[in-house]
Amino acid sequence: MEIFALFDCIMSPACLLSQAAGGLKIGMLLFLVASGLTLVFGVLGVINFAHGALYMLGAYFSWQIMSITGHFGLSVILGALGVGIFGLLFERILISRVYNAELLVQILLCYSVVLILDDLVMIIWGDEFLSSVGVPEVFQVPPLFIFDAIIPPFHLAIIAMSFIVGLILWFIMTKTRFGRLVRAAAVNPKMLEALGININLLRAGVFMLGSFLAGLGGALAASVGSVVSGMGNSIIIESFIVTVIGGMGSISGAFLASLIIGMARSFGAVAMPLFTDGLMFLIMVLVLVLRPQGLMGNKK
Amino acid sequence: MKKINKYSRREVLKTSASITSVLTIGAGFPSILKAENNIKVGIPTILSGRVAQLGISVTNAIKMAVNNFNNAGGLDGRNIELIIRDSRAKPDEAARVCRNFINSDKVDVILNAEASGASFAVQEVIRESGTLCLHTVSETSSLTADPSIRAWNAFRFSRIGIHDAVGSAKYAAEIAKGKGLKTWMSVNPDYAYGRDSDDTFFWALKKFSPGFEIIGKGWPKIFQPDYTEVITQIARKKPDAIYTSLWGGDLVSFIDQALLYGIFKNTELFAINLADYTTMSAVKNLPKGLHSATRYVAAWPNTQDNRDYDKSYTDIYGDHPTNWSWEASVGIDYLINALKETGSTDTKKLAEAIKGKTRKSFMGVGDGNTVSIRDRDQTIVDYSIGWGTTISNEPYMTGIQGADWNTIKELENEWLTDKGWL
């Protein structure tokens, strides 16, 4: 463990800024994916183990659209929308049948879908990994030097885009009728149904939104990472850690937890490069012990 | 009893059962005989998930050789029958698959195409059973270098970490001397192979160029999608050179992400696993001048045999072979030769026929383009190890220099002595 290295880093503006920007980028990408997971759990009560597979689908869809259109923006938006539509079908055809089933049944169903999708993408796109989608031409420029910290402009774009998505999500959930209904459905779906609200439509909408967010995370990740079957497996673990730390079902909690995990990974790499994953789990354990409902979760 | 036409249900069932039995015996018996007569080779490998390409390129190479063998009449009419099963890259699953091969399928040989973690599990199984085993993928040195892990019935046809490390370090030391590279960082995957590669490379580099300093190490997890925290460290510490044993999609992601930081403008990258076609062609805008070992490229070794191998594989599968393909091809070639030489599937006879044997090979750089299975540790030597720099398009590599096997063997012995394994 290199605690002194961490101290030196915090004292150096270049290191502090560089690691903080890196942590912010990691955290914001993670937030996109984890917010979808926590939304689905909070409203529908489903632990969607297939969320990582939806992230993978977002990467594949984005890659495919990029290879057809050559347009980065379209590839990200249509890739995410495609996953949203897939999520809608997934919910209507499969998930809607297990809302009242035991947890084990839900997990088995989701896990089956993960295995099917992992193999399906290999059948469609081949067994080899695909090259990244690539960053748009406008960001193919030398990195910025701010107080000697090196920051790629594309990372700033990802951070900004994730913030905007987070704000839109906050607006939808707190300021719109849909958001109010969704929050009500999380508390008492039967009452909502008695009031004449189409609860099935609401559930499908929430699942679609959660899938869209997973797809968006995958599409953005594909811009600077190879696309491969099974790529959702690592992100799903981190997303669950975020969900537990932030509080199951809390989007603001997911935001806070994503930032914590991003910074832990970025600064953890300075102080304890062999323990960055362990550090995430350590934070999760501490939260579970000291505040089991999560940082922003409600006690039930 | 109600009758169906004039037959009772019992009569219909009896007649059906009789017909089925006759058909089964008539059609099935010869095929059972045939199956019993075949030489069974079990292949545990990875056919699903992120490294499925490993299993597919290995089995492609094996099928190519086995089809030729079977079409030529096999071993006195006995064909090789391949039984290929997916372990999903899990050591416990690989061990289970192997036990099934041995106990249920009664295989004659196990051709192990698992990555390092699972290969150790396979080694434990075959050590107990005494089945002949050819390792064709794992590169972790200790699998055959450590006498406590070695087994009399196991042979290794894959590259070995220490061999590659010495070849790499010799090349890197020459570049370092020419360019004045003093400070190093490393980025290696956090599992057995990555740690082995890091240890052996810097151990060997010290022998050739002792004045360097390691200023940082990054240990990303295998299949990690985001390398930002490692890359920001590199950007901040500004090393003269980086050594990495990341591979496949992980290496592609690392290079793509590092390019955003302009890392390779002032830092030399030595990526031991870059020069495989699938990896190089996947890097977006592959920069010129990255250093890599030649995992598998048609350009090295620069021989007609190697180009012919590349062509025959590409003609069948529509894609270039991988590093794993050549390793499996050499392994199955040794097995087929041993079968022909002994005319038997007896494990002891086959092991004797493989041990210490030298054979001509498209990847051979020994006398007369040969590779050998060394008697001492039943491990392949004299295979092609080259280093060069990348260019953006095919053949992707230029300025390739071959490694000197005398130096490799000399330093390997020193390393084994240090470890107490010799």
> What's the overall average pLDDT of chain A, rounded?
93
Radius of gyration of chain B: 25 Å
Structural class of chain B: alpha/beta
The largest sheet of chain A has its strands arranged as: 1-2
CATH topology of the largest domain in chain B: Rossmann fold
Portion in beta strands of chain A: under 5%
Distance between the termini of chain A: 39 Å
Could you give the count of β-strands of chain B?
15
Output the CATH homologous superfamily of the largest domain in chain B. Response regulator
Class by SSE composition of chain A: mainly alpha
Number of domains of chain A: 2
Beta-strand content bin of chain B: 15-25%
Shape of chain B: globular
Tell me the name of the CATH class of the largest domain in chain B: Alpha Beta
Structure, described:
The complex is a heterodimer of chains A (300) and B (422). By secondary structure, chain A is mainly alpha-helical. Chain A has helices at 3-11, 13-44, 51-69, 72-93, 103-125, 153-175, 177-187, 189-194, 199-221, 232-246, 251-271, 276-290, and strands at 144-146, 149-151. In chain A, strands 1-2 form a two-stranded antiparallel sheet. In chain A, helix 7 packs across helix 9 (199-221) and helix 11 (251-271) crosses helix 12 (276-290). Chain B is of the alpha/beta class. Chain B folds into two domains: 38-158 and 325-381, Response regulator (Rossmann fold); 162-296 and 391-419, Rossmann fold. In chain B, the strands form three sheets. A seven-stranded mixed beta sheet of chain B has the order 7-6-8-9-10-14-15, with helices on both faces. In chain B, strands 2-1-3-4-5 form a five-stranded parallel beta sheet, with helices on both faces. In chain B, helix 6 (161-179) crosses helix 7 (192-208) and helix 12 packs across helix 13. The N and C termini of chain B lie far apart (83 Å). The interface between A and B is large, with 50 and 41 residues.
